[in-house]
Amino acid sequence: MRSIIISAFLSIGGLLWVGTTISAFTIPTIPSRPATTFTRLYDTPENFADVATTIADAAGALAGKTIVVKYGGNAMTSPELKAGFCQDVATLQKLGIRVVVVHGGGPQINSMLEKVGVESRFEGGMRVSSKEVVEVAEMVLCGSVNKEISSTICSAGGKAIGLSGRDDSLLQCVKKINKDGYDLGNVGEVEFVNTKLLNDLLDMGICPVVSPIGTGIGEEKDVAYNVNADVAAGRIAGELRAARALFLTDIAGVLDKEMKLMPNLSCDDIDSLIDDETITGGMIPKVSYATSAVKLGVGGAFITDGRVPHALLKEVLGGGASGTGSGGGGTFVSL
């Protein structure tokens, strides 16, 4: 009786058994998990080969390449989704895929602002960031939120280090001027990304977990700027020429006027959908982050439903060698 360990396969539409006997192969329970824990990888033996081939094709196409993930929304606040996300990052690392995580933390910032009595407001959909607001945001994002994510990735078997955008001038910013004339305070627009720092860590097999607090440039190098996490993720992905950028959100993806998911769109398609008002309101900035990343040189961008368990793995590996996603968990954007 021979034994094998399957550590990198998770469900894509139904999945597998770890800790039971399959024909002549006995699969031992993963030591770090309780003996009673089972992970389903397939429902039927016939489906197993298809799933394994899809995962292998996707992993082979992305091995040694970089993906950038914007992590936020419900995927950050649900304990189950949070654990699943960190497991996904660790799994992708084991498959030889380089991962950068850029996280948000709006609800956590709001909670702390309320506790310390600092007022905050939004103008034009963006948080007005006074010096006091940025101090609280930096404390929350670069402290508890950032370190919890990096620690949980490590606990899941990956390697991660938490970084602020101010560390080694990772995110160098200038003051953002709102198009509607609002003074947003210390809200930053990323001008330069220290890609050497990120690549050095990635070359060592480490996932950089980046909190979007940037630093000023020149005489303002000691100024802290609050940066939109989606914008930071898109810019980092573009500067790294990442193979993929994923934006985990609390929406199913881009929907047509009949509220049906559109799984694949080009940048031109998105422009047309904005013009005919299929894409409206708060969806416009979400697709804009994705199209901006693609135009900066990213191989493709996902607007992914982060409320789906293991959404990261399903979209990165679910499309096989094509790398265009599972087709059911969001919208893939390309040139």
Automatic annotation (TrEMBL):
Pfam families: AA_kinase. It comes from the Eukaryota. GO terms for cellular component: cytoplasm. The keyword RNA-binding does not apply. The keyword Protease does not apply. One of its GO terms (biological process) is L-arginine biosynthetic process. GO terms for molecular function: acetylglutamate kinase activity; ATP binding. Residues 65-304 form the Aspartate/glutamate/uridylate kinase domain. Its EC number is 2.7.2.8. Keywords: Amino-acid biosynthesis, Arginine biosynthesis, ATP-binding, Kinase, Nucleotide-binding, Transferase. This is acetylglutamate kinase. It comes from Nitzschia inconspicua. The lineage of its organism: Eukaryota, Sar, Stramenopiles, Ochrophyta, Bacillariophyta.
